[in-house]
Each structure stands twice: as structure tokens, then as C-alpha cells.
UniProtKB/TrEMBL annotation:
GO terms for molecular function: ATP binding; D-serine ammonia-lyase activity; L-serine ammonia-lyase activity; magnesium ion binding; pyridoxal phosphate binding; serine racemase activity; threonine racemase activity. GO terms for biological process: D-serine biosynthetic process. InterPro entries: Ser/Thr_deHydtase_PyrdxlP-BS, TrpB-like_PALP, TrpB-like_PALP_sf. Its cofactor is Mn(2+); pyridoxal 5'-phosphate; Ca(2+); Mg(2+). Belongs to the serine/threonine dehydratase family. It comes from the Bacteria. The keyword Cytoplasm does not apply. Keywords: Lyase, Magnesium, Pyridoxal phosphate. Residues 23-308 form the Tryptophan synthase beta chain-like PALP domain. PANTHER family: SERINE / THREONINE RACEMASE FAMILY MEMBER, SERINE RACEMASE. Gene3D superfamilies: 3.40.50.1100. Coiled coil: none annotated. This is Threonine dehydratase.
């Protein structure tokens, strides 16, 4: 794992973008007048659901692999993940000519396991708990010599995720606020860093389910409070906040807003019906937070990151 805690600077984020741009999509920003009227503000949706592997995770995983020294990369890379990081790392490994070993809980969605296999990743299943993930990963790393790339608590991953906001600011839109979902915190930390460097007065907000609100509670307490038994439809946000991520978030994020699962489902349905976009529940959390806090965003230009679109459409929560 990384030994340094050096926070990426703007030059690092710009170099990361140059490093990964051949491997990712420059995703569009879309607007919706109907939702703007409901929210009483001007929303700019950064559509990372159109990203490679269907999520922003492609940015961080690709950057992390490309920054590995050849000596470390030759034996492949490894991680534990039940979601988008698994597919992102498998794809990035394939694109950069190395092997990916992915430890996944036996309960992981079949659609996500299939994605990992499609990108050539080797899945090693384990019991569905953090201890089993970590011990299985340790064994895989020991046996293969693969380099461990964490899903979010890793500066090279945060640096890669920060390129999403870099693209947003490059559009020339004078955002009055930006909001992203927060689970492990890689996307929020990266977004906050880029915005701090490019528009220090623009507040960045995190949005989180009430059933997995460790980032909210940690920010209020000014120390990490791990999440125990999270319960939310936003399965991409079940992960506890990372230490490196918290270091950045605590200094650069204005607030974290929490919403109920009912509010998340309503916002998700709104995006499906009004914007015709396929998004996962985690992606709907920021919009739900804006609709629940209208006075905070009234008449403002708000950048909102749609973090991913990997959802089983046969199991939508509003059908």
C-alpha cells in the first residue's frame, strides 16, 4: 500500500487526467428544465453513468494502475470489492496489460461478477464480511505477488477521481455549488480537492443515505465514526469512510446532507422518467438531497455528479 499521505495538488490532478484520458470517456453534462423547476435551481448533471464500466470508478482505478512501477505491476493487481471498483480495476488491468485478482463476497450481484469476468478479472469468492475480504485478499497477494489497489482509501485513486470535477470546471460553468454521493469518500474527496484549487469559494457538499450516514456523523464529530450494519437501497454507499478521504473531506467539504431511502427512490425515478437516464440508487442520492434542502440551493447553479449506472433493471425499486 501507499506509504505517503501527500495530498494531490492541482498539477498532480491535471497530470492524472493526461495519464488516463486515453482510457476513459469525457462524460457529458446534461440539464433538465423540469427537474430545475422542481428543485428551484439550475442543475448540471455530470453523467458518469456514461463512463467506462458505467461508473466514475474507472478514473481512479486506471490512474492507480498506470502509476505503479513496472516491477510492481508485472505480477498483477488485486483488490476486494463487491461493486464498481471490481469491474473498474479488472478493465484497467486488461487495458494496461496486466492481471487483476478480485476478491468478491459470495453474495455479490451476479451482474457485477459477470462484468469483472468480461474484463478478464479473476474472481476469488469469500464470505460476505470485511474480515473475510481482508484475509482472503492477504492470501491472494501473498500467493501471486500482486499489488493491492484499495477501492477509495488510496491517494492515487482519489487523484484519479478528482479528474471528474476537472472536466466539470473545464466546461466554463460558474458553479455556485457542487454535490456528489459519499460512501468510501474517493469521489467526494477528489471533487473537493479540484474545486478547492480552481474555485475556492464554491462549496462542495456530500450526499449520504440516512441508513449509512457515517460520513455525516464523522464530519460533525471531527473524527471517523465507523458505520456498523449499514442499511440502504444505495448499495454503492455502504462502505465506511476512508481515513485519507476523511482528511481531505474534513478540510474541504461544506457539509454532508442525508436522505431517506424513500427520497432516494423518488429522485431515482425522477431521473429515469424526466431525463431518460439509467442510474443506480447511489447516483440519485445527491438529487434527493437537493430536493430535500431547496433553500440551500435556491436560484444557484449546482453541479451534481451522477456517479454510475450499474443497476439491475429487472429489479428497479419503483416498478
Amino acid at each position: 500500500m501507499q506509504q505517503t499521505y501527500r495530498i494531490p495538488q492541482l498539477i498532480d490532478i491535471k497530470q492524472a487526467y493526461q495519464r488516463i484520458m486515453a482510457y476513459i470517456h469525457h462524460t457529458p453534462i446534461l440539464t433538465c428544465e423540469a427537474i430545475n423547476k422542481m428543485a428551484d435551481c439550475q442543475l448540471y448533471f455530470k453523467c458518469e453513468n456514461f463512463q467506462k464500466v458505467g461508473a466514475f470508478k474507472a478514473r481512479g482505478a486506471t490512474n492507480a494502475i498506470l502509476k505503479l512501477p513496472p516491477g510492481l505491476k508485472k505480477n498483477g493487481v488485486a483488490t476486494h470489492s463487491s461493486g464498481n471498483h471490481a469491474a473498474a480495476l479488472a478493465r484497467a488491468a486488461k487495458e494496461t496489460g496486466t492481471k487483476a485478482y478480485i476478491v468478491m463476497p459470495s453474495t455479490a450481484a451476479a451482474i457485477k461478477k459477470a462484468a469483472v469476468r468480461t474484463y478478464g478479472g479473476e474472481i476469488i469468492e469469500c464470505e460476505p464480511n470485511l474480515k473475510a475480504r481482508e484475509t482472503t485478499l492477504e492470501k491472494v497477494v501473498e500467493e501471486t505477488g500482486a499489488a493491492f489497489i484499495p477501492p477509495y482509501d488510496y491517494m492515487d485513486v482519489i487523484e484519479g477521481q478528482a479528474t471528474c470535477a476537472l472536466e466539470m470546471w473545464d466546461e466554463g460553468i460558474p458553479f455556485d455549488a457542487i454535490i456528489t454521493p459519499v460512501g468510501g469518500g474517493g469521489l467526494l474527496a477528489g471533487t473537493a480537492l479540484t474545486t478547492h484549487y480552481l474555485s475556492r469559494k464554491t462549496p462542495v457538499y456530500g450526499a449520504e443515505p440516512k441508513g449509512a450516514d457515517d460520513a455525516y456523523r464523522s464530519l460533525k464529530a471531527n473524527k471517523i465514526i465507523p458505520m456498523e450494519n449499514p442499511n440502504t437501497i444505495a448499495d454503492g454507499l455502504l462502505t465506511s469512510l476512508g481515513k485519507r478521504n476523511f482528511t481531505i473531506i474534513s478540510k474541504n467539504v461544506a457539509d454532508i446532507l442525508t436522505v431517506s431511502d424513500d427520497q432516494i427512490i423518488a429522485a431515482m425515478r425522477l431521473v429515469f422518467e424526466r431525463m431518460k437516464l439509467v442510474i443506480e440508487p447511489s447516483s440519485a442520492v445527491p438529487l434527493a438531497a437537493i430536493l430535500a434542502n431547496k433553500p440551500l440551493f435556491q436560484n444557484k447553479r449546482v453541479g451534481i455528479v451522477i456517479s454510475g449506472g450499474n443497476v439491475d433493471v429487472s429489479k428497479l425499486p419503483f416498478t
